[in-house]
Amino acid sequence: MTRPTRRTQRAARLTAGAAGLSLVAGALAGAVPATAAPAADPARHAGLPLPAGASGGRVTAAWDTPDASVSAPATALVGGVRADQPVRIVTVRTVDGRPAVTTRTVTGRAKATAVVTAAQADDATVSVGVDHVLHLTDTTSNDPYRASQWALTTLGAEKTWTSTTGTGVTVAVVDTGVQRNHPDLAGTVLAGVDLVGDVPASTDGSNDENGHGTHVAGIVGAIANNQKGVAGLAPGVKILPVRVLDGDGAGYDSDIAQGIVKAVDRGAAVVNLSVGGTEAGATASAVKYALSKNVVVVAAAGNERQDGNAISYPAADTGVIGVAATDSTNTDAPFSNTGSYVDLAAPGVGIWSTFKGSTYKQLSGTSMATPYVSAAAALAKSVSPGLTPAAMTNLLQSTATDIGKAGRDDATGYGLVNPYAAVCSLVSCDGSTPAPTPTTEPTTPVDPVTTAFRLTTGGGRTVTAGTTISIAGKLTNSATGAALAGAYAEFCVRIAPATGFVCTAATTGADGTVRVSGIATANTWIYLTYPGDGQTAASRTATAAYPVAARVGLRAGTKSVTATVTPARSQLVKLDRWTGKTWALVTGKTVTGAGTASFTKLKAGTYRVRVGATSSTIASVSGTLKVK
């Protein structure tokens, strides 16, 4: 996923926040160029068969590495939200070494922006954004009953079962739930989890009002040779149901992300995601977590080829095995999405499987193709439990049967999944010595150069409203002390009463410095941050805090005092008179909208005014004034 383009501008003057700190970024001499998208992965786009020992997978960052959403402008992340639109914001944070997915529902773009900004300011945040609704990769039903499961014949199920049926492997079906007591699944389905929270709900994921999840589960692991219904490709596996979609087949990205995490924590070796949406979201962080725990993740490529062919997530997320659908002639299905994220193809047209209500149904879609690949992964895992996700991807790609165009193509990836060839490359199926297990040994990463971003001017202090404040921070190579000139950076400002920071693009000068100055009118916090560029590590300055006291001017009249308060926040102003020994309260008034408070019929003496604290300013005390 490429980093969203940050805000840029040609003018040096910027305005941060409605409360009004007018800032000047001294380093912004010209427009900051947009961040370039990363180069395409040649293994994904070259159109060539995968060489033995090579990986077609994408490089996967650690799951707890913050993604681009953490440093992107908050306004860009909620740009499509209307002023009156209720919206759920989903945040993935690192808590006790695991992803914690939380959501908050607010109304309108402004509040959504504030929630996102607050999450971005939290160092534990991994990703944040709008919680998109995902749907099943739509299925179509064919009425004529078809007695033969052509897919099992095409994939060589029975001959694969002579070596393994997947015993000892758990496959998580993150879907609409799975009917646990279906006759063809009895004893196969474990107690799972329900994250939908509707009625009727199930605590163990066994409520499937839609039927889709039960259909997917049967493709993976329906009992074979029991003289009932259908058989799954891996009839020895256990199914872990994780219900994240409701009876209509819709659910939030946040629930799917939580479902993946729970599936991993409950011991799943393979996670099946026959779901899809057009927006990348919180699932990406959950997928990274799964991969870090050696769990294989398989997802549907989508059924929208004839309706725009949009990229489908989570299939397009890094590290996920994306699956397209084929028919009984080994031709890619006309509805099946195409794209560089398609890794493999599997049968997905006219697929019979278990269905809700202890019935059976024939459905079509990449939702049906995906569990065949999940089952193939489970079969391979059962004979080689140590296979990493990258090695599994390599194994299934390198043993696939090439169909369609020669070599890899965007319609079927590296070809039709071949469970028999995959298993037989790991164990002897016919007395011959299996080929060496394809492995993917990751290149030892080169640690990025550490950087330091330190404030050189303006560490924070209490100021009076209207005071010019300035900070400067220098970005350097921690090891050598050399300045990093021309680097993309951001200055992030929080102006009370706002609770979150707003970050704006900047560029370090020739001496590695970013300078920010402006007039403070409310409590202000500022820090500078550098996101890193892959070769150099991210860093940020300390936060400079500027508590702002309201400015108070006094004017004496005939037995009167008029106080002018800036900024005017309807503060309570208290008038004190000096008794010769101490200050005594005379009276109090609320500042008008014009920022004034007048006191009349006063005795001769010395007076002062105290201004109360507000959500934007701290308490302040005026100078003294004599009334005659």
Key structural traits:
30% strand; 628 residues; disordered N terminus; five-stranded antiparallel beta sheet; alpha+beta
* Share in helix: 10-25%
The best one-word shape is: elongated
Mean pLDDT: 81
Structural class: alpha+beta
Assembly annotation: single chain
Most strands sheet: 7 strands, parallel
Which secondary structure elements does this structure contain, and how are they paired or packed?
Layout: E1 13-16, E2 21-25, H1 42-45, H2 74-77, E3 86-95, E4 98-107, H3 109-120, E5 125-130, E6 133-136, E7 140-141, H4 150-154, H5 157-161, E8 170-175, E9 193-194, H6 212-221, E10 238-243, E11 250-252, H7 253-265, E12 270-273, E13 275-276, H8 283-292, E14 296-300, E15 321-326, E16 342-347, E17 351-355, E18 359-364, H9 366-383, H10 389-398, H11 419-424, E19 451-457, E20 463-464, E21 468-477, E22 488-495, E23 502-507, E24 513-519, E25 524-530, E26 539-540, E27 544-546, E28 548-549, E29 551-557, E30 560-566, E31 572-578, E32 583-590, E33 596-599, E34 605-611, E35 620-621, E36 625-627
Parallel strand pairs: 8-10, 8-12, 9-10, 12-14, 14-15, 15-16, 20-28
Antiparallel strand pairs: 1-2, 2-24, 3-4, 3-5, 6-11, 6-13, 7-18, 17-18, 19-21, 21-24, 22-23, 22-25, 25-26, 25-27, 29-30, 30-33, 31-32, 31-34, 34-35, 34-36
Helix pairs in contact: 6-9, 7-8
